[in-house]
Structure to design on (623 residues):
């Protein structure tokens, strides 16, 4: 059996070998035949060579090879970058204030000075050019010298030197203005006038920190309060007193263009420790007391309203005021009645000064509503802190509830300077959603570090006294300003109205100042207001609301020549900003985040170059 199996295996192997040999021979034969045929076919002849050349020429002459794809979606439309062109504006726009433009204002109602309120240009009216400085513009005097002097070339108006000559507002001396510190009701000077007020209420213990001056003139009252650690916002309309707010800003005093007419002032409720009117010509007793009701809204519990000028002490001044005794007495009576209806207490009237005080809560006031039925308390349908084109009301803004007559509504504030770092009552009470005491403290420390880093980027910010007027375009809790409080400068803290959380009230509770703003519109201030502008995440906030270049043009308008800008934002936004400002005569560079170069948030630092309008044609001026 074993032998039989061995024979079978041997035969199978031989059969396989024969098959492999046969296949190999056949493959070799076919390969040789193919090679022979191919060799014969590639031997060129004269005729075949001519035909090949002719064919190649014909292909070159008549055929274009198409390598394009024929099955694809259409390309999107071309998005070639638009060439940015932002030239200088005509010199006639040197003092252009877009939302208080004199010509545009004439289209609006003159009743109650509504035409002097904000009336901003439409999108199709916006200037796409850069506002020039006047010829001969100079860097303003440094504080405190700027309180006394300003260059004529910077604000070339002599009208007030003539109109207010006897009141010591401002005098023209050679190439400059001098501000003696006088006013209509304080001919001895603002310093002496403030001393008189200080004899009636305490201006020294830190309980009074924030103030507002309505109808401020050239802001001498605010200028001289600064030496007493009282920070005042001064405002006045752009009216026949040409450039009064501009003079205030040139002096280095916080000021805005504004008027009490038909809409709320752009400040939250309970903002100011003290409000002031010195012959401001506001009809306080008219229109159902609306203007005093608005003062009450922005006045802090226990705060003071100071009035000097008509009709106060009319018995001594009625002849000089060219008004009848009856008229002046009637005006004072109406003011007294409105003040009583607001539950204010008249503390004192001495000489030309009268002072009222707002109650610290409304417990007693709710009781006396039985006597003074008007104004009624507002029903709460409107947020008392909302103040952007918000109509004035004829109802009394109720103070936050308290548990007893001695409690201060809204919470007691620390005295200055402890007020700056103490947790604001709006935060400690939980009124600001998502903002806690811990958030506040962390934010304060964060901005100390950031400002220290900024000073390594911008040597002018680091130089003591180089900057005076600063703007923070998105202030949040005011910690940028708080970090600079020991430098001789002030910061206007703006809170964009587009934000969900309104933090401006907390900023005021820190003893700082600010205003609301929509950065798709111009600010209520003159060109060349600020030495330095800080913009944190502004362009991300407004990217779907208005054009980036319009915001940058507004920044350029209100920035002084050789002033600086620091912009923080996402790197994509920063690159877009850099592309625009390179056409605006700004020297700009991008800097890494203070924590790490790997952060997406970047910083753009820019300095506005010095340039002015051309020298006026003297021949034309003579004509």
């Amino acid at each position: 059996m074993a032998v039989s199996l061995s024979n079978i295996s041997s035969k199978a192997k031989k059969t396989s070998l024969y098959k492999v040999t046969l296949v190999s021979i056949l493959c070799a034969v076919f390969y040789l035949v193919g090679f022979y045929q191919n060799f014969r076919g590639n031997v060129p002849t004269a005729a075949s060579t001519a035909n090949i050349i002719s064919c190649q020429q014909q292909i070159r002459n008549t055929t274009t090879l198409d390598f394009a794809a024929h099955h694809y979606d259409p390309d999107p439309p071309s998005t070639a970058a638009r060439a940015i062109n932002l030239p200088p504006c005509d010199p006639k726009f040197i003092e252009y204030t877009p939302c208080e433009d004199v010509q545009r204002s004439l289209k609006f109602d003159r009743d109650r000075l509504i035409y002097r309120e904000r009336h901003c240009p439409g999108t199709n009216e916006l200037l796409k050019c850069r506002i020039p400085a006047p010829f001969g513009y100079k860097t303003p005097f440094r504080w405190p010298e700027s309180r006394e002097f300003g260059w004529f070339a910077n604000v070339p108006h002599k009208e007030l030197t003539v109109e207010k000559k006897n009141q010591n507002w401002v005098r023209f001396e050679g190439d400059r203005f001098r501000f003696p510190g006088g006013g209509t009701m304080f001919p001895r000077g603002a310093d002496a006038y403030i001393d008189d007020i200080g004899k009636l209420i305490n201006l020294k213990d830190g309980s009074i920190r924030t103030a507002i001056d309505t109808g401020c003139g050239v802001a001498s009252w605010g200028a001289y309060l600064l030496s007493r650690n009282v920070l005042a916002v001064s405002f006045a309309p752009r009216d026949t007193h040409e450039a009064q707010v501009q003079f205030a800003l040139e002096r280095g005093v916080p000021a805005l263009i504004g008027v009490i007419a038909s809409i709320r002032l752009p400040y939250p409720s309970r903002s100011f420790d003290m409000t002031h009117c010195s012959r401001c010509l506001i009809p306080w007793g008219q229109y159902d007391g609306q203007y005093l009701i608005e003062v009450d809204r922005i006045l802090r519990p226990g705060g003071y309203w100071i009035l000097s000028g008509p009709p106060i002490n009319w018995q001594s001044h009625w002849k000089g005021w060219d008004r009848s005794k009856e008229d002046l007495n009637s005006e004072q009576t109406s003011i007294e009645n409105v003040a009583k209806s607001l539950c204010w207490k008249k503390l004192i009237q001495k000489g030309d000064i009268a002072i009222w005080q707002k109650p610290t809560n409304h417990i007693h006031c709710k009781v006396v509503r039985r006597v003074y039925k008007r104004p009624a308390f507002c029903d709460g349908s409107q947020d008392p802190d909302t103040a952007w084109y918000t109509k004035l009301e004829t109802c009394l803004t109720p103070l936050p509830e308290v548990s007893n007559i001695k409690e201060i509504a809204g919470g007691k504030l620390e005295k200055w300077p402890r007020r700056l770092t103490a947790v604001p009552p709006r935060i400690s009470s939980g009124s600001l959603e998502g903002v806690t005491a811990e958030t506040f403290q962390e934010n304060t420390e964060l901005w100390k570090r950031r400002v220290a880093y900024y000073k390594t980027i911008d040597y002018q910010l680091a130089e003591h006294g180089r900057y005076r007027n600063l703007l923070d375009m998105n202030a949040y809790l005011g910690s940028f300003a708080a970090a600079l409080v020991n430098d001789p400068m002030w910061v206007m803290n703006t809170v964009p109205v587009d934000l969900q959380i309104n933090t401006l009230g907390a900023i005021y509770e820190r003893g700082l100042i600010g205003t609301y703003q929509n950065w798709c519109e111009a600010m209520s201030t003159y060109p060349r207001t600020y030495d330095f502008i800080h913009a944190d995440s502004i362009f991300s906030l407004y990217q779907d609301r208005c054009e980036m270049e319009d915001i940058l043009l507004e920044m350029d308008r209100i920035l002084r020549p050789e002033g600086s800008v620091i912009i923080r934002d996402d790197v994509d936004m920063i690159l877009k900003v850099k592309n625009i400002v390179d056409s605006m005569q700004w020297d700009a560079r991008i800097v890494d985040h203070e924590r790490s170069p790997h952060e997406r948030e970047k910083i753009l630092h820019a300095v506005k170059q010095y340039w002015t309008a051309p020298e006026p044609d003297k021949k034309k001026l003579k004509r």
About this structure: The longest helix spans residues 2-41. The chain has 21 helices and 17 strands.
